[in-house]
Write a structure and sequence with these properties.
- This protein is α+β, with helices and mostly antiparallel strands.
- 54% of the residues lie in helices and 19% in strands.
- The chain has one domain.
- The protein has a 4-stranded mixed sheet with strand order 2-1-3-4.
- A hairpin with a 2-residue loop joins β3 and β4.
- α1 packs antiparallel against α3, α3 packs across α4 and α3 crosses α5.
Length: 114
């Protein structure tokens, strides 16, 4: 799970199996291939928006609320600001573990869940 200050509040971003399946269905790309696209800068804006929206849903937010929040927040900031959050959210879903990653002021901090 990723916890990130997003739109003036902290939110959880987490991709569970349902969100991973939705991600693959909506992008027509396997989750790991999409991860590679993110790592090599071959992604699209829609990939980022979708990962963030699904990550918020997996973190407990309603889908409509997540969509509105992502559209509003990403439109108000430089786009590249959100590439690392999307990549970290997908990375955490793939490689997971018992850790919570917090992104604060551009720095990643990882803590083991107790």
């Amino acid at each position: 799970m990723i916890i990130r200050h997003f739109s003036n509040k902290e939110y959880s971003f987490h991709l569970k199996l349902g969100q991973i399946k939705a991600l693959e269905k909506e992008t027509n790309i396997g989750y790991y291939a999409l991860y590679e696209l993110l790592n090599f800068g071959k992604h699209s804006i829609d990939h980022i928006l979708l990962i963030l929206r699904l990550g918020l849903v997996g973190g407990g937010m309603e889908s409509n609320e997540a969509n509105t929040l992502v559209q509003k927040e990403v439109a108000s900031q430089p786009f590249f600001t959100y590439v690392e959050l999307a990549r970290a959210t997908l990375h955490n879903a793939i490689f997971g573990g018992d850790e919570v990653t917090t992104i604060s002021e551009g720095k990643l901090e990882t803590q083991t869940k107790s």
